[in-house]
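Quarterly update from the structural biology core.
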Amino acid sequence: MKTLFALVAWCLLFVLCWPLALLVLVLWPVIWLLALPFRLVGITFSALFAFLQALLFLPARLLGGRPGPASVHRAAAA
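Predicted structure, tokenized:
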């Protein structure tokens, strides 16, 4: 759906201002390549925070605190 919206928006831009639409078409891969390291940093920080959360909640789970999401699904299936 996102791709269809981007295509329709680009076609509308092409009808309204074709030089700008062609410029966007040429520069889009360059912008994507420049944004790629920031996405990788975001994924890394997300994984780091998930690991820290699991590490901080580990004692509570070992001592019988609230079960994790996997335990809830196993109990519901049984």
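Residues 2-77 form one domain.
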